[in-house]
Amino acid sequence: MIHHIYSTYARSGLSGTGGDTQLMVYRSPLVSRYASKEMAYNFSDRKKFTTWRKLWIYLAKAEKALGLLVTDAQVTEMESHAEDIDFAMAVEEESKLRHDVMAHVHTFAHCCPTAAPIIHLGATSCYVGDNTDLILLRDGFDILLPKLARVIDRLSNFAEKYAGLPTLGFTHYQPAQLTTVGKRACLWLQDLAMDMRNLQRAREDLRFRGVKGTTGTQASFLQLFQGDHDKVEDLDRMVTEMAGFKKAYMVTGQTYSRKVDIDSLSHLASMGATIHKICTDIRLLANLKEIEEPFEKEQIGSSAMAYKRNPMRCERCCSLARHLIALLADPLQTASVQWLERTLDDSANRRISLPESFLTADIILSTLQNITEGLVVYPKVIERHIRHELPFMATENIIMAMVKAGGNRQDCHEKIRVLSQQAANVVKQEGGDNDLLARVQADPYFAPILGHLDNILDPKTFIGRAPQQVARFLSEEVRPLLEPYKAEIDVKFELEL
């Protein structure tokens, strides 16, 4: 047990045992390979346990201000040792006590002998545990939101640039009516905008657990303040404000409701679904050679096939997005089996599901930012694919033009049907190009409209209001979402691995 816990600190570089230790134990690739430094730190032991100490300081300050026997010297001593944690001692204490919170109470008390009697006064373990988790969730959202804003910004620029470039639409992954490259990007943007609003709401809805005692009744604090309910409420409010929250949950059991975790992680999982769809679309388009993710000069696509340009960034996003989506099952099941005021079978699960959800969301957003900053479009390939399919799509327009020129709709329909089947046979049975247009031009029946055929077949006449939709959507729904993040929007992301 001691060796297992101590190896955690060794991996973190906190034990001074040297870098070789890292090669001897499993390390989560979420941290060792992918995640940003800021998100990795947000869920680090260093931040977790220094936050515990800050919470004990907030509690002592508020208790002192409300008249309990806490001295300035005790508060000052605690503040002066908020950061210098003896992690090895904490490990030794936990191996004896089998209780992580009390292990850190003893470790803090060891370097704060004057303050030792009042550390954790009136509190329960969830005072530091749950309140810290809420702080980490809040700070995690604050890391993710600017990154999501950058992805939306890059993709908005892409949509605007290609708002009018016709491309084949696909339904059932079969060629369909034309759209534009920019309009398709707006489908992705619409989902990302929903994710942005969801994450903003989840972040703003977070409250502090506050000081509630062992079963949420605040009985220990009511006793400390000799039955003064107002002072207990003031204590809760003061600590909540010191921690940077506007509100605390009015009722809790021993813990805050685990539905809060569902709310937070469900929106991350939903964003994972969005990113999986976007990156799957890009992978399909890369197969058609219409759009590609960035590919570096010395990048290798395959160890065997030197010509390969695999969409490895999009594949990574899809792979990790599946993990993010799957993690949602944890808080759903955890919340459903919390007995009465609390059971401890939430703890080990939450140590994994909460950090991994935010770490995974962080990774796929950063990777998607890198993708959207370097998307490559091949207009000539797109044009060739349109030319291959457009004659079939244009048949109704040809019929309408013939009717306007005095022809009979039913006669024209039959002519087009016969010629279309002949052209389809060339494509499917002979492997040739679609020659429907040549057949129309060679048939004397269509002589009245031959002079207008180029206009009838102009791809831009098949994209409807796509460019106008893009412009309005970006202006009214997307750009306003980015306003709060203007100062952080220009940060670029370089993929390291």
Provide an overview of this structure:
By secondary structure, the protein is mainly α. 62% of the residues lie in helices and 3% in strands. It is built from 21 helices and 4 strands. Strands 1-2 form a two-stranded antiparallel sheet. Strands 3-4 form a two-stranded antiparallel sheet. Residues 1-18 have low confidence and may be disordered. This is Adenylosuccinate lyase. Homotetramer. Residues from neighboring subunits contribute catalytic and substrate-binding residues to each active site.
Oligomer status = single chain
- The topology string of helices and strands comes to HHHHHHHHEEHHHHEHHHEHHHHHH
| Largest sheet data | 2 strands, antiparallel
Mean pLDDT comes to: 91
Shape: elongated
Q: How many strands appear in the DSSP assignment?
A: 4
Q: Which stretches are poorly predicted, pLDDT < 50 over at least 5 residues?
A: 1-18
Tally of helical runs: 21
* Strand-pairing-aware structural class: mainly alpha
Strand arrangement, largest sheet? 1-2
Instruction: Give me the Rg, rounded.
Output: 31 Å
Q: How far apart lie the N and C ends?
A: 34 Å
